[in-house]
């Protein structure tokens, strides 16, 4: 079966750092993806990991450990506009399987 | 380069009617994915199509739902005899077919279906 787990909600303060965790158990694995989704809008691609380690993209970084079935998304220097849902997804035979998403609220 | 275009943005149907959702992929893309998102839930895979071919329909409900991607024109997701439980946001994504790692999926703005 396919199982992708993320915390449901998180809160953080403007300017802080937040880490959103994702664990997965899937029958196949080609890569792990992170998407951001603001309420009522389309998911937008943030980053992906194929190999173990850290990928950095500006204020966003994503980490993967394939042996542990674990990834995290790190957001630095949080801004109010970062309040959104963050979706973890695994590529399983060329289709993305999504977790339920983590709703992040950033407070001033 | 225009992104993935979906229409309509909002669709209201009465129970028992048919809903037709359209998705035009990005230029040069020959593969389309459909996902459904219920309120406060994640995206659920429905179907993966190539032009004139269904590659993976493992997420499609067995009845009332069908999808096509003809040689010419947009991909269509069709829901017959809609019920209240079909109310959701339906998102489409396209790719050139090289796999999601080489070409991460980019989504359209979705169609929000409301069944009254």
Low-confidence stretches of chain A: none
Provide the structure class of chain A: mainly beta
Percent strand of chain A equals over 45%
Which stretches of chain B are low in confidence, meaning pLDDT under 50 for 5 or more residues running?
none
Question: Beta-strand level of the residues of chain B, as a percent range?
Answer: over 45%
**Largest sheet descriptor of chain B:** 7 strands, mixed
Report the structural category of chain B.
mainly beta
- The best one-word shape of chain B is globular
Helices and strands in order:
The complex is a heterodimer of chains A (108) and B (116).
Chain A: E1 3-5, E2 9-13, E3 18-25, E4 31-37, E5 44-49, E6 53-57, E7 60-65, E8 70-75, E9 84-92, E10 95-98, E11 102-107
Parallel strand pairs in A: 2-11
Antiparallel strand pairs in A: 1-3, 3-8, 4-5, 4-9, 6-7, 7-8, 9-10, 9-11
Chain B: E1 5-7, E2 10-13, E3 19-24, E4 31-37, E5 43-50, E6 53-56, E7 65-68, E8 75-79, E9 88-95, E10 106-107, E11 111-115
Parallel strand pairs in B: 2-11
Antiparallel strand pairs in B: 1-3, 3-8, 4-5, 4-9, 5-6, 7-8, 9-10, 9-11
Walk me through this protein's architecture.
The complex is a heterodimer of chains A (108) and B (116). Chain A has 108 residues and is an all-beta fold. Chain A contains no helices and 11 strands. In chain A, the strands form 2 sheets. In chain A, strands 2, 4, 5, 9, 10 and 11 form a 6-stranded mixed β-sheet that branches. Chain A has a 5-stranded antiparallel β-sheet with strand order 1-3-8-7-6, with no helix packed on it. Chain A is globular, with a radius of gyration of 13 Å. The mean pLDDT of chain A is 94. Chain B has 116 residues and is an all-beta fold. In chain B, 35% of the residues are buried. The model of chain B has no long low-confidence stretch (mean pLDDT 92). The chains are: A mainly beta (108), B mainly beta (116). Chains A and B meet through strand 5, strand 9 and strand 10 of A and strand 5 and strand 10 of B.
